[in-house]
Amino acid sequence: MSFDASTLKHFDTAQQAAAFVAEQIVSACKKAVEQRDVFHWVLAGGSTPELCYRLLRDADLPWGKVHCWFGDERALPAGDPQRNETMARLALLDHVPMLAGHIHAIHFNQGTEAAAIAYARQMKEVSTFDFVLLGMGEDGHTASLFPNNPALESAELAVPVYQSPKPPLERVSMGLKALNNHQQCMILATGSSKKEVLKNISLGAPLPVSRIDRAVWVVDTAAWSNK
Ligand code: 6PG
Q: Domains in the chain: how many in total?
């Protein structure tokens, strides 16, 4: 994957990178609501996007028109501190006037496979996601699509994930086809732990995150030095 000025935005700090992504989400939201009266946003999990979400608390957005989806979710009970939904709620969603029904959480009460089936059914409501925000793991996974895991090759909108190398073992992830069904996608990768994998990706390593189409990568100097 070759990066250029249009596909990689490099900032000195993680804070600047997060602020840039937040600005992009604000403009994408305003444009989508102006054009289609709705904004379908896929949120990234993990820890990296938390600062971006916090920065959006003060954004003047038509929150009643925003639908939040999760690129993936960990198979944990509602409210568990390790859930991606919990992080997003604490950082942003519980601080803005979202409509409860517009936060499309993934629930595992009936098990992981049933959670994926139910989520895929909900996702059918959306023709195209207006904005997909993703992170990336040190092994080049994104959402919960891990290298050499069968979930990566699924054509389903949402797929159960087993034997995840990153705990918990079980998850639900949006499938590659769903993640690539977007008007705009940004991959936020900051911190020194992402430096090696980002270099490998720039040299063509065939990793799950490399299969995300038309993404703009947003990185900081700790993760990317173009020397
Ligand atoms: C998860 C995330 C995962 C995350 C990456 C990066 O459930 O863990 O969805 O895909 O985005 O692992 O995680 P960090 O941002 O914590 O480095």
A: 1
Is the pTM of the predicted complex or chain greater than 0.85?
yes
pLDDT tens-digit profile of 180-223? Answer: 999 999 999 999 999 999 999 999 999 999 999 999 999 999 99
Torsion angles phi and psi, residue 8, rounded to 5: -140, 125
Domain that holds residue 163: 5-113+125-169+182-192
CATH number of residue 24's parent domain:
3.40.50.1360
Please check whether residue 95 lies inside any domain of the structure.
yes
3-state secondary structure of 32: helix
- Tell me whether residue 175 is in a domain: no
Query: Is the residue at 108 inside a domain?
Result: yes
8 A C-beta contact, residue 172 and residue 75: yes
Which tokens sit at 40? 């379908």
Supply the residue whose CA is at minimum distance from atom 13 of ligand 1.
Answer: 46
- Give 147 Cα–ligand 1 centroid separation in angstroms: 14
- What residues does ligand 1 touch, defined as CB less than 6 Å away? 44-48, 72, 74, 84, 135-137, 141-144, 166
User: What 8-state DSSP symbol labels residue 44?
Assistant: P
